[in-house]
Design brief:
Helix content is 47%, strand content 6%. The chain contains 14 helices and five strands. It is globular and about 75 Å long. The protein starts with a helix and ends with a strand.
Length: 335
């Protein structure tokens, strides 16, 4: 059975709406791809969620095999299994802990009783360190700031008076931030950057014209070019490679905006070391859509709908994700 027919069968149960359809489209786009669920912390709410991608993959694979042998009952059997899976998911979501978890990622800007707040003294240090990192960014430029390593950042502090030396306290804090267990904040992704001073080799990069951003040569660049070819000139790269320093800067900015609420910050942005932007993922948007490309409004654009129709959507953070992160329809999963 072809992709359109499978989607039609699934739509009978209404289940294709899960994760704005991205889970199903991912499975249909790449049969046989790596569908392993990212390991998460032993959180009761997260661990209670069904392994939806794998179960859907099994249903689709079984249906495809049955269809190949022209089994008459295959479509109805598939619909029944999808309906059962949907019922299981709804039952789990009725659990108070799961409901609380889903509420947090859907109302990510809210403040919750068990959110993790830093002390007033630490908050002062965050703003002090953030100000110095901001001076580094102004010195090297926004594009280059995406790529510089931790050691390079320190050298800019030493060599440029407008930046000034990073203090021992500031550096120790950034090191502590990188090696902290983000699960404490409520972020349940895996760490993808092993070392604080890890560098991104320049030979592996390409600056994408008219965007100010970089992509990894190979899989990431090829996939972005495929999107451009399929969708047209209306799609644009809004964020590519982000090294550890840039992710630290963005995360500390979120912490500052959240008045020291680390949990609130991590619902909007992966903590340093946990961002897949460092290893291949990237963000896309609609040309001329501005900051709204980083809101749920992007999911209503013609660009997003074309990505759906062409089967290109493989989102890292669906609206039912297990990372503890807000829904990000703009974040394309590559690795």
């Amino acid at each position: 059975m072809d992709r359109r027919s499978i989607l039609k069968a699934l739509s009978v149960s209404g289940f294709v709406a899960l994760g704005s359809g991205s889970v199903m489209r991912q499975l249909l786009q790449s049969k046989g791809s790596d569908l392993a669920v990212v390991p998460v912390a032993e959180d009761k709410a997260v661990s209670a969620l069904p392994d939806v991608p794998q179960q859907l993959a099994d249903i689709v694979e079984e249906h495809a095999a049955a269809a190949d042998f022209h089994e008459v009952s295959a479509p109805s059997r598939m619909e029944n299994k999808v309906a059962d899976l949907q019922a299981d998911l709804e039952a789990v979501k009725a659990d108070p802990q799961v409901k609380d978890y889903m509420k947090k990622i859907r109302y990510f800007e809210g403040v919750f009783e068990d959110d993790y707040f830093i002390s007033a003294e630490e908050f002062k240090l965050v703003k002090q360190t953030l100000a110095r990192m901001s001076r580094v960014q102004r010195t090297v430029g926004h594009g280059n700031f995406n790529l510089i390593s931790f050691d390079q950042m320190i050298k800019y502090g030493k060599n440029f008076s407008q930046v000034g030396d990073f203090t021992k306290v500031e550096l120790e804090y950034l090191e502590k931030l990188f090696f902290a267990d983000a699960h404490v904040y409520g972020f349940y992704g895996e760490k993808v950057m092993a070392g604080l001073t890890q560098r991104i080799p320049s030979k592996d990069l390409l600056k994408v014209p008219k965007t100010g951003h970089f992509l990894f040569r190979g899989k990431s660049l090829a996939f972005y070019e495929k999107l451009r070819k399929g969708v047209g000139d209306d799609i644009v790269l809004t964020s590519g490679i982000r090294g550890t320093v840039k992710q630290m800067y963005l995360f500390l900015s979120k912490v500052a905006q959240a008045e020291g609420n680390m949990s609130k910050a991590s619902r909007s942005l992966a903590p340093p070391g946990y961002s897949y932007h460092a290893v291949g993922d990237f963000d896309v948007g609609k040309v001329g859509f501005g900051y709204r490309n980083f809101t749920e409004d992007f999911a209503e654009t013609d660009v997003y709908k074309k990505l759906q129709d062409l089967g290109f959507l493989t989102l890292r953070y669906t609206d039912d994700n297990q990372f503890g992160v807000r829904y990000e329809p703009w974040h394309i999963q590559v690795v």
